[in-house]
């Protein structure tokens, strides 16, 4: 497969722009004639989850996967067409669009072999440039980290992506970069989530990180999402590889909020004739509250339905106390009985950790015999028989005189 075919297909093994799966778009309007997009605007993808929209002013017959040369500032850039047709207008509402004097930038031409060769040379310089840029920033004692470097297709400009907690004065840094790399410099700040999305990795669920596979827009995650779902506020379990709260905390948040719309507040103790009960935990989708007796009172946990809790709170506000709290039966899910032989789980992972009986027998044989001279009470039955080993276990015949 040639390099141009790899670029067009977005081969994962190559280091081309747009090889990330989350930059791909499924065109569900592919079979519909192009009616809403008369200007023939196309979506072009680049490296580092960067996309932009360009006008096909030359009337080129473009399709998804074509490598094109587009207008840039300065010069031109090389990208891959990721979407054409009417769906482009809907995508423009979701992403940031770059305008020049109120108009979209232009598509110059389909990339020539010379353009692709120059682009590949530029991408080959990115890793070494990033390492040198990090060393220069460290020498200048700047509190920042260079996360990645992206060269423009014509090698006239480079974008340096950096991470910093506070504002950084990098005017001197830009001068040193320009003198060292002999290109035009652009500094672009990114967050920890964007960096983790570009680096990638495997999450605790065993799947590829969502930010590196399909998430394009990051939504803020707060600890309230964990509180609504009754998750322990443990920073080590709630934080992802980026050091921030996991994005998946928002996935089921709406379902938990809808289920708790009619739930009573859990900070109100339940008053009974035998004492007060405090809230312990909740099973939201089973609509159960678990209560435990207050301090210095005997008793265990009690499971009460949400409707009954609301009724008890209403009675307490009226000055009445219920005789006692009785736990409601909780349905326990039975394990599924398999009607086939489960081959995968027949060998336990800790089967070698358990001491075997043969190993114990070997240990007993290796033990040294105790000193029988010190133990006169030992019976003669425990002593080894003397004589020839062949006669072991047989009665001795008396000698003839």
Mean pLDDT score: 80
Helix content: 25-40%
Number of strands: 13
What is the end-to-end distance? 104 Å
| Rounded Rg | 37 Å
Largest sheet: 5 strands, mixed, barrel
Number of domains: 4
What order do the SSEs take from the amino end to the carboxyl end, as H and E?
Answer: HEEEEHEEHHEEHEHHHHHEEEEHH
Cα shape: extended
Low-confidence stretches: 1-20, 376-390
Classify the secondary structure makeup into a structural class. Answer: alpha+beta
Our count of helices gives: 12
Strand content: 15-25%
- Give the neighbour order of strands across the main sheet: 1-2-6-3-4
Task: Give a quick summary of the entry.
This protein has 401 residues and is of the alpha+beta class. It has twelve helices and 13 strands. The N and C termini lie far apart (104 Å).
What do these coordinates show?
The protein has 401 residues and is an alpha+beta fold. The chain folds into four domains: 3-112, no CATH class; 125-190, K homology (KH) domain (GMP Synthetase, Chain A, domain 3), CATH 3.30.300.20; 198-259, no CATH class; 262-330, no CATH class. The chain is built from twelve helices and 13 strands. It has a five-stranded mixed beta barrel. Strands 10-11-12-13 form a four-stranded antiparallel β-sheet, with helices on one face. The N and C termini lie far apart (104 Å). Pfam families: PSP1.
Task: Write the SSE topology.
Blueprint: H1 3-9, E1 41-45, E2 51-55, E3 67-71, E4 76-83, H2 87-92, E5 99-100, E6 103-110, H3 113-124, H4 126-139, E7 145-151, E8 157-163, H5 171-181, E9 184-189, H6 192-199, H7 210-213, H8 223-228, H9 235-238, H10 253-259, E10 270-272, E11 275-283, E12 288-293, E13 302-305, H11 306-317, H12 357-366
Parallel strand pairs: 2-6, 8-9
Antiparallel strand pairs: 1-2, 1-4, 3-4, 3-6, 5-6, 7-8, 10-11, 11-12, 12-13
Helix pairs in contact: 4-5
Biased composition (Basic residues): 359-370, 391-401
Biased composition (Low complexity): 371-390
InterPro entries: PSP1-like, PSP1_C
């Amino acid at each position: 497969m040639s390099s141009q075919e790899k670029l067009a297909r977005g081969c994962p093994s190559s280091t081309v722009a747009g090889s990330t799966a989350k930059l791909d778009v499924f065109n569900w309007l592919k079979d519909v004639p192009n009616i809403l997009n008369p200007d023939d605007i196309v979506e072009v993808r680049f490296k580092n989850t960067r996309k932009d929209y360009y006008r096909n002013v030359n009337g080129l017959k473009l399709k998804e996967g074509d490598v094109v040369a587009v207008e840039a500032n300065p010069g031109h850039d090389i990208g891959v067409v990721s979407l054409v047709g009417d769906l482009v207008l809907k995508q423009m509402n979701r992403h940031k669009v770059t305008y020049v004097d109120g108009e979209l930038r232009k598509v110059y031409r389909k990339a020539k072999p010379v353009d692709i060769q120059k682009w590949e040379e530029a991408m080959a310089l990115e890793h070494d440039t990033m390492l040198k840029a990090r060393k220069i920033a460290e020498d200048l004692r700047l509190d920042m980290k260079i996360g990645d470097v992206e060269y423009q297709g014509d090698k006239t400009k480079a974008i340096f992506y950096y991470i910093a907690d506070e504002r950084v004065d990098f005017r001197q840094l830009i001068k040193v970069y320009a003198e060292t790399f002999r290109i035009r410099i652009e500094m672009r700040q990114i967050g920890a989530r964007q960096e983790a999305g570009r680096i990638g990795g495997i999450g605790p669920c065993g799947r590829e990180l969502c930010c590196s596979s399909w998430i394009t827009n990051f939504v803020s995650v707060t600890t309230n999402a964990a509180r609504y779902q009754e998750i322990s506020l443990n920073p080590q379990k709630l934080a992802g590889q980026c050091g921030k709260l996991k994005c998946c905390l928002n996935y089921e948040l709406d379902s938990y909020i809808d289920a708790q719309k009619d739930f009573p507040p859990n900070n109100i103790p339940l008053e009974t004739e035998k004492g007060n009960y405090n809230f312990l935990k909740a099973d939201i989708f089973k609509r159960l509250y678990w209560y435990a007796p207050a301090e210095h009172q005997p008793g265990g946990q009690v499971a009460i339905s949400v409707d009954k809790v609301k009724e008890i709170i209403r009675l307490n506000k009226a000055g009445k106390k219920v005789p006692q709290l009785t736990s409601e039966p909780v349905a326990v899910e039975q394990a599924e009985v398999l009607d086939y032989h489960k081959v995968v789980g027949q060998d336990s992972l800790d089967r070698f950790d358990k001491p075997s009986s043969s190993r114990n027998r070997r240990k007993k044989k290796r033990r040294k015999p105790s000193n029988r001279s010190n133990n006169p009470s030992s019976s003669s039955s425990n002593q080894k028989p003397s004589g020839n080993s062949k006669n072991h276990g047989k009665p001795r015949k008396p000698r003839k005189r």
